[in-house]
Amino acid sequence: MKDFYKTLIEYIEYKGYTPVKSEEGKIIVESEKKEKDALRDDLEIDELRFEEDEEKITMVVVSPVVHEDDLLRLEEADGHRILVSPEEVPPETRDSIPDDVEIWDRGELIPRFGEMVLEKALLKGEDEGIEGIKGPKEEVDFDIEHEGGERILSPIIDFEDVSEVGEKIANGFKYTLELVPHYLYTYEVKKDEGSESGKLYLNAISGKPNFWERPFESIDKIKRSHVKMEPNISEGESTEKALDAVKDNYSEKKVKKWEEDGTTIMEKEREEPQEEDVELEKKGMIYVPMWAIEGTEKILVINAARGKIERAIT
């Protein structure tokens, strides 16, 4: 990973932390500006804990191999401890690391670094210094059924943004823009307290579902050179997968409790909506612009309509 240490410091600072002590192999991070809950949410560490007089995170950066000295430094570290490695940490090494130490290895860092680069690209400075997000702020309705049966989601990142990710994360040398077909559905789920509705688009090649989590614009053509992919999942199979995805997304964990021979028994189970409680309607085909980046270290797939890394392949 190119300029790994430099990119790590950039990521730490981008998340709002200040490296108060930085030396090869160990970084002490703290923040004076953020509240504790906000600090926890931003770094996405569920188990982050603070002493009343201390807000500190210690990262121990190791070479591809974790040595005894690294484990000793972890034991001596203050605050929440994170082991950072530019390579994958194998299972046998993970077993030797204390349970309360978080591990950021290659598989964890690639999406974190990539998201940082893309998020920066999505934030554009205004004259007043106010930051705004590229892309529509409100949903732009489009009727696929009456517009030729298919549309393309408009990209919110361009080649310059993608190439920066490829250079920093994968040492990229080949960039291909692919239009990946997705079946678009609207759905409504009936619940005891009412109903919830939304949209879902399902990859017609891999079968992966995505929920419509932000406003999108659609266009009828894209100027940049691209490859238009063909679906290999039938409409019938896609509808089954979409229904399963909606039921899984709206399932709830419930605890059943009963008495048996003087003993209280508790059982956790996942309860999903019944099929008759889900209304699903296919709206047509949309094509999602995806950048495939081939690099000497990784293959990355970036969803240009969401500005997100879909997957990283070794």
Secondary structure: elements and pairs:
Blueprint: H1 4-14, E1 18-23, E2 26-30, H2 36-43, E3 57-61, H3 68-76, E4 80-84, H4 91-94, E5 102-104, H5 106-122, E6 123-125, E7 131-133, E8 150-153, H6 159-170, E9 172-191, E10 194-203, E11 209-211, E12 218-219, E13 227-228, H7 235-249, E14 252-260, E15 263-271, E16 278-295, E17 299-303, E18 308-313
Parallel strand pairs: 3-4, 4-5, 8-16, 9-13
Antiparallel strand pairs: 1-2, 2-3, 6-7, 8-12, 9-10, 9-16, 10-11, 14-15, 16-17, 17-18
Helix pairs in contact: 5-6
Labels describing this entry:
single chain, 314 residues, alpha+beta, nine-stranded mixed β-sheet, five-stranded mixed β-sheet, 7 helices, 38% strand, flat
Brief overview, please?
The protein is built from seven helices and 18 strands. The chain is α+β, with helices and mostly antiparallel strands and about 325 residues long.
Distance between the termini: 12 Å
Care to count the β-strands? 18
Give the uncertain stretches in residue-range form.
31-54, 124-137
> How many helix segments?
7
How many structural domains in the coordinates?
2
- Main pleated-sheet profile: 9 strands, mixed
Task: Tell me the overall shape.
Answer: flat
Helix content: 10-25%
